[in-house]
Amino acid sequence: MEGRKLIVTIPLLLFFIAVFSVPPAAFGRKVAFPRKRMPKPCMNLVFYFHDIIYNGKNAANATSAIVGSPEWGNRTILAGQSHFGNMVVFDDPITLDNNLHSPPVGRAQGFYFYDRKDVFTAWLGFSFVFNNPDYRGTINFAGADPLMNKTRDISVIGGTGDFFMARGIATLMTDSFEGEVYFRLRTDIKLYECY
Amino acid sequence: MEGRKLIVTIPLLLFFIAVFSVPPAAFGRKVAFPRKRMPKPCMNLVFYFHDIIYNGKNAANATSAIVGSPEWGNRTILAGQSHFGNMVVFDDPITLDNNLHSPPVGRAQGFYFYDRKDVFTAWLGFSFVFNNPDYRGTINFAGADPLMNKTRDISVIGGTGDFFMARGIATLMTDSFEGEVYFRLRTDIKLYECY
Amino acid sequence: MEGRKLIVTIPLLLFFIAVFSVPPAAFGRKVAFPRKRMPKPCMNLVFYFHDIIYNGKNAANATSAIVGSPEWGNRTILAGQSHFGNMVVFDDPITLDNNLHSPPVGRAQGFYFYDRKDVFTAWLGFSFVFNNPDYRGTINFAGADPLMNKTRDISVIGGTGDFFMARGIATLMTDSFEGEVYFRLRTDIKLYECY
């Protein structure tokens, strides 16, 4: 009899698992998705990276350069209209604290461009590249960076090495900036898929 | 006895689940992957976005601008050879229907470039950015856009906020275009991984 | 009695599954992630692609072109300082072997840019686009390419068609190069998430 009860119980259990793991579909504009579960990250990491944009005078120190601009801009001074259309390639040092002169633990390599005319807003595609005893591998990122907001979330779209197949969210915060030449981003990485 | 039968049944069940969830490996050129299962989307969304390319005369209305071109091109007129090498940065309004003048529900922000000489073909990296009572968060996209095809599939590579950790497919359709200045894309988003 | 034993056994089983599926969280700089499991790929693919950069003289054969450069560069010759800041758009043939003249099975379409001043290093965003009886669909890639290394791992960030929702790792190897005009990359794709 107990066995029989179990036979009934297990399908029921599976049924409930099935029902509650399928999020409610949202069609068109109607959005009804109470967060089913807010998972815990499987990895938390905090880094800073430091961007020094080439401006025609700082070739020795610059870690990035303007490589594209709209017709009304050039490649030594960020354009008007909130730098709309300026594209920048960078190779920035990553540090564990907010000091530009701390020993770098890796490089942030990629590109960003400004994509709004009325307020400073960027879009980023880049990698954190690590090759030291503590970390070896890369974390790949992409997403929108409305940089006047205190925090901005972008996606961790993949990883290699120690960060094999990583997925997650990176929260960017502008930790400091000086004119239009230097800025420092704090990056809080939370991975929700680890292998 | 019933219980005993069950003890046998469960491992068998697990065994079958295991066997049928592992897709057959395909090596080299031999491809043998009968689609195991075509999952149902956990979220369906349909949006339109509208791109007005800066052409030297429409500064007030333009939502995008050419920021890169091959040596034989410039940044006010899309280049010959199917615009090969033209790179465009955009900040386009997103609407729920196909009317450019409908109230925008978000912004499509990112870049695309033309990457074929013999037929119009592009590659896109961008985000849908929402910040309203219905949706808050971003959806990030990347992929090839052979835009002469009626439909083209690109990848949803991540999401934040209401679209936390989203993955899926976006199907693009050119809904309308006017010369080389305006085009409208219908975007059918199907998410297959939701949290 | 057997049934009762089972009632005890199943929650225990679920408990162990739960415990061992949660990877250990790593906080801050402390990294402690013994690889829980190194999964087997669900798909292995090997391809070659061939890039011929436009240099002002090879318009007929070129498959790619410089579309962005730093202020100190131009769009017909790769810039000094390890080509830092040069951005290239490409539409390269994909072959099954290392012969440029083998029948192409698809196109590698996307962009790369050089992003280090002191050593040749690039960052790539691109798709493999297939449309033939063997493969139909796209695989999307992004990641850092420190191209002086023998092998470099980038991320498979998504896929469509036969590669629906793919995730994995692609290992790049420079198979050959001629001056600064031609290079050939071997790409070993291992997918760890297949549908």
TrEMBL record, chains A, B, C:
The keyword Secreted applies. Gene3D superfamilies: Allene oxide cyclase-like. InterPro entries: Allene_oxi_cyc_Dirigent, Dirigent. Homodimer. Residues 1-28 form the signal peptide. It comes from Kadsura heteroclita. It is found in: Secreted, Extracellular space, Apoplast. Keywords: Apoplast, Secreted, Signal. This is Dirigent protein. GO terms for biological process: phenylpropanoid biosynthetic process. The lineage of its organism: Eukaryota, Viridiplantae, Streptophyta, Embryophyta, Tracheophyta. It holds the Pfam family Dirigent. Dirigent proteins impart stereoselectivity on the phenoxy radical-coupling reaction, yielding optically active lignans from two molecules of coniferyl alcohol in the biosynthesis of lignans, flavonolignans, and alkaloids and thus plays a central role in plant secondary metabolism.
